[in-house]
Amino acid sequence: MFDYGNGSMASYPWKYQLLLTSNGNLVELLSGQRFDFVTIFPNQNPFLMTVTATTKGNGGHEIYKISENRLENVYESDIKTYDAHEDNKIYESYELVLKIKDFNNDGYNDISFMGKLFLFKDKQKMATGLTAKQ
């Protein structure tokens, strides 16, 4: 991963993850606010999770399966799971927390995003509980 630290807003968030094969060939170049490996299925390879964001502070999560020298996007949603844009609301710590477990007891792990939403009214912050599940 390399991080410019700062730069023009057109290239925000200034962080890139390069995925290379063992012989040095480029698999993918990803731009994101944050990168992490997450385990979704026990005893299987981890998935690559990225948190994307715009210069205004709106964004979400993407999850990629890494296999055979390629990335497969297995989760990309229109649900905003990252919000640092102080329009009339933001998430606490800006990012909803990703939870992975078998919520519906069907034998397969599910993903869920949970956190707090802060609403702004007349420049005062009011906490509102929020649970977003998908």
Topology diagram in text:
Layout: E1 2-3, E2 15-20, E3 26-31, E4 34-38, E5 47-53, E6 58-67, E7 70-76, E8 82-83, E9 89-91, E10 97-101, E11 110-121, E12 124-133
Antiparallel strand pairs: 1-2, 2-3, 4-5, 5-6, 6-7, 6-8, 9-11, 10-11, 11-12
Summarize the structure.
This protein has one domain.
Can you put this structure into words, describing what you see?
The chain has 134 residues and is mainly β. The chain has one domain (2-133). Helices cover 0% and strands 56% of the residues. Strands 4, 5, 6, 7 and 8 form a five-stranded antiparallel β-sheet that branches. Strands 9, 10, 11 and 12 form a four-stranded antiparallel β-sheet that branches.
Approximate helicity band: under 10%
- The total of beta strands comes to 12
Low-confidence stretches: none
Q: What pattern of helices and strands is seen along the backbone?
A: EEEEEEEEEEEE
Structural class: mainly beta
- For the record, give the distance between the C-alpha atoms at the N and C termini, rounded to a whole number: 29 Å
Radius of gyration: 17 Å
Tally of domains: 1
Q: How confident is the prediction overall: mean pLDDT? A: 80
Count of discrete alpha- or pi-helical segments spanning 4 or more residues: 0
Strand content: over 45%
Shape: flat
What keyword list fits this structure?
four-stranded antiparallel beta sheet; mainly beta; 134 residues; 12 strands; flat; five-stranded antiparallel beta sheet
